[in-house]
Amino acid sequence: MLRWTYLKTWHTVGPTFFEIYIQMHPLMEGYQVRRLFYWLNTLLIHVHYLKDQHYVSATDDLAKQLTKMFSEGD
Length: 74
Description:
By secondary structure, this protein is mostly helical. The protein is built from four helices and no strands. Helix 3 packs antiparallel against helix 4. It is flat, with a radius of gyration of 14 Å. The N and C termini lie far apart (28 Å). 1% of the residues are buried. The mean pLDDT is 88.
């Protein structure tokens, strides 16, 4: 599942690949939320090693999105 997330995040392959992949390997329930956490982990690694402002901003945006998602359930 982690590889799928990286392919999706980095736009490595196109929609046809994903359509066929999902037919052969259906996504498990909760994938959309897990994908965001996988992406957050990737961004944090990039922030740690590269210290690039782009990754810092993207991490902040994603953290806000996740916070909003989980605070709406309260």
